[in-house]
Description:
Layout: H1 4-10, H2 29-33, H3 35-39, E1 49-51, E2 56-59, H4 62-70, E3 75-76, H5 89-93, H6 110-123, H7 126-147, E4 152-154, H8 155-172, H9 176-193, H10 199-225, H11 231-239, H12 248-282, H13 284-292, H14 297-307, E5 314-318, E6 322-324, E7 327-329, E8 334-337, H15 339-343, H16 377-394, E9 399-400, E10 423-425
Parallel strand pairs: 2-8
Antiparallel strand pairs: 1-2, 3-5, 4-10, 5-8, 6-7, 9-10
Helix pairs in contact: 1-9, 6-11, 7-8, 7-16, 8-9, 8-12, 9-10, 10-12, 11-12, 12-14, 12-16, 14-16
Amino acid sequence: MQGAADVRGAAVVVETPALRFTRNMTESDIWFQDPYAASRDGRRPGGPLFVPALDAWVVARHDDVREVLRRADDFSSANTLPMDEHLAPAVRAELADSVGGRRVVVNSDGAEHRRYRAPLLAGLTPARVEAAAPFVAEQAARLVDGFAGSGEVEFVGGFAAPLAAGVIGHLIGLDPEDVARAVHGTAQALVMHFLPVGEDRKIAAARDFAAMRAMFDDFARRRRAEPRDDLGTSLLTALAPGTGELTLDERHEVVSNLQNLFIAGFITATPLLGTMVLNLLRHREQWEALCAEPDLIPGAVEEALRYDTSMQSVRRVTKAPVTLAGVEIPAGATLMVMLASANHDPAVHERADEFDITRAGGGQLSFGHGPHACVGAQLFREEAGATLRTLTERLPGLRLRPEEPGTMGHTVIPRDGSLQVLNLVW
């Protein structure tokens, strides 16, 4: 898909390294190449640790992470995503006349959050995901058809990104050319908010991101005029009931949530698919076992989720003074809630740092927990299962190109840039 490589290359540095608190760590390589090694100090017996360099409390143990995620009334999600007002004035000016920029399901609380979440739950039920399974399988096969005869592929740009974008775009109801525009806009959002580039580059990114908003605004107004049986129409109908012309406030809200739905479905699934295949091929005996026994695929997906987590951490803010694992945390404090560390907690997972697709499932927090648990969890499992079924059937000889480590980027929340390049041969 045109534009997929653009996102992969754009997500380079996010200046919020959730785990960079190890006292003797002076270089970033440990975090970017093996973030789990940097999290071990955080799972200390004393509970959450305040890290002055982050001006945040780091929550690293599985039970503590689960508790924070469960207690949404005490730990606010309002600062989970950057907002337009956080941008420099010249960058923000490029977005001033665009439609969007409102809160979404990820960074809202209470009744507002439940209102945004309801149409997503209704649109991504197990039955709806099952109905989409043939499309997912067809897309996975089509992508493999495109490179199977070449003997090599760069897997992130050649398979993971286009599959993730194509699937979420299809469910929303986007035309293929609009999916490509949304992919490009996603890259620009990452540049605009995170990449340490000059102001001119950020201004250009904001201009392109505004164009993505305009595309979703046009999509919403077309769906208002001609509703269809897709997730985009369902979200529009839930947030803006009625049949009349959308008000400006409704357009702002609908565009924000459509845009977030696409970005979330794209930037979480892409690295998960990539690291899943990377880790299986690094453990050759497990890849071969998977090829011989397809019944192992569901377990392989769960282990891939646990072992290399796409959303390394999420932010929360205390609404009032709270006690967590015996530690007093003041009101208004920022917490870095480390999902990846929870998934490697030896108190929950035996041999936590080993990759084992035969591991008994359960306990992983890759999709979060509680009221904000990811509504797309089942959809990703379908994408991952289709990926493994297609690759093990069609390319059982798949392997890493000699000396291919998997080129890791510098993104932390989420690990969208964690796997930028993965060269495979067969």
